[in-house]
Amino acid sequence: MAGGYNHATTDGGALRDPESFSGMIENLGDAYEMAEEMYGMIWVLAANVDANPAEAVEDARQRYRDGLEIARQHTEGS
Q1: Which among 13, 25, 29, 43 is least surrounded, fewest beta carbons within 10 Å?
Q2: How far is Cα 30 from Cα 3, in angstroms, rounded to an integer?
């Protein structure tokens, strides 16, 4: 997969900076593949932690900035 999750993140698991990210994603097809992979990952995670995955996904959507902070605390390059 040319535009997968691993292209959007560093080896340490941090989200790439915009310049590095744009160098990894060559076209809109790559961007869509990355979004599709992350979308699937979100639903797998939601299904594993909540009786109502759709509610968990909506809660995460509303609180994504909290998720960015959690990621900064748990990834290399924070």
Answers
A1: 29
A2: 4
